[in-house]
Amino acid sequence: MEDYPRTVAEFEARFATEEACRVYLVQLRWPDGFHCPCCDGATAWPVRTVLWQCTGCGRQTSVTAGTVFQDTRTPLTMWFRAMWCVTSSKTGTSALALQQVLGLGSYRTAWAWLHKLRRAMVRPRRDRLSGAVEVDESFVGGLGGAEGRSTATKALIVVAAEEVGRGMGRIRMRRIPDGSATSLGGFVQEAIEPGSVVHTDGWHGYDRLKANGYRHRITLLRGDAELAIAQLPRVHRVVSLLKRWLLGTHQGAVTQVHLDYYLDEFTFRFNRRRSRHRGKLFFRLVQQAVAAEPVPYRDIVKHTRRGRRPGHKI
């Protein structure tokens, strides 16, 4: 059963205490009862206020261990407010805005929290797209043009969008190193169910789709941008919305090293755009946050240039 607050008043009343937040995490992490991460035991007794001890192996664990919230020194009430801020706005929030709204002591804390939550927005083993699906690539970011389909100065992404009548269903997107058959074919196999109709342009990177079990529909565009928009309207609409979101919410300040996680957030939001209550996005985010692996701050920043601190260009 999906259990979530519908309004900000309901949210504030329900999650005003640390204990209320912890009970909600238990409910979402162990919906069928306690599950020991060590021996798979199903029974435990409480130790102090935050630990459970497995009756089978004796291991002690908390509801936050092995999740996004592992080792946090910040109250769960603050984490819950952060997740509500992230999901209650249709366009999301930047690290600077989150810092200001929550009164966090540093920009770095807000930035790290958002990156931890973005990593929880991809559900493991999620269903692949199916039916008729448009696929195309586009450049995002960078400081200049790129020749052909290389990624010399910009990030190359590939986007898949389900055709639902004249409308659009779910989407998937990923940053890829190049437009080769290996990169594009790998994305299609991961994102789209075999047997689906995959609609692309005539780029040779898609030549193996039929051999991989897809029905391949090809439209030759010959470099005509207007024809591309007309023949593959859904993916071009998604790319347009993505670029507007990166520019509007994040002021375009997203580098390639972290772009994948912004793509995950955009996908998470887009695929839930028809939810009647923003609280449902909050529910899904918390649900996936207790299922996601913990990510230390040093792992988030280890690939940033010269190890510098996060700022507007990370």
Description:
The protein has 314 residues and is α/β, with parallel strands linked by helices. The chain has a domain of 113 residues: Nucleotidyltransferase, domain 5. It has eleven helices and eight strands. Strands 6-5-4-7-8 form a five-stranded mixed sheet, with helices on both faces. Strands 1-2-3 form a three-stranded antiparallel sheet, with no helix packed on it. A hairpin with a 2-residue loop joins strand 5 and strand 6. Helix 3 crosses helix 10, helix 4 packs across helix 5 and helix 7 crosses helix 8. It is globular, with a radius of gyration of 21 Å. About 3% of the residues have low confidence.
Jot down its keywords.
three-stranded antiparallel beta sheet, five-stranded mixed beta sheet, alpha/beta, 8 strands, Nucleotidyltransferase, domain 5
Helix count equals 11
Strand order of the largest sheet: 6-5-4-7-8
CATH class of the domain at 132-244: Alpha Beta
Any idea what the CATH architecture of the domain at 132-244 is? 2-Layer Sandwich
Q: Radius of gyration over alpha carbons?
A: 21 Å
Content-based structural category: alpha/beta
Mean pLDDT across the residues is 87
Query: N- to C-terminal separation?
Result: 38 Å
Write the CATH fold name of the domain at 132-244: Nucleotidyltransferase, domain 5
What is the string of helix and strand elements? HHEEEHHHEEEHEEHHHHH
How much of the sequence is in beta strands?
Answer: 15-25%
What is the approximate shape?
A: globular
Helix content: 25-40%
- Low-pLDDT parts are 143-151
Number of strands: 8
The named CATH superfamily of the domain at 132-244: Ribonuclease H-like superfamily/Ribonuclease H
Main pleated sheet: 5 strands, mixed
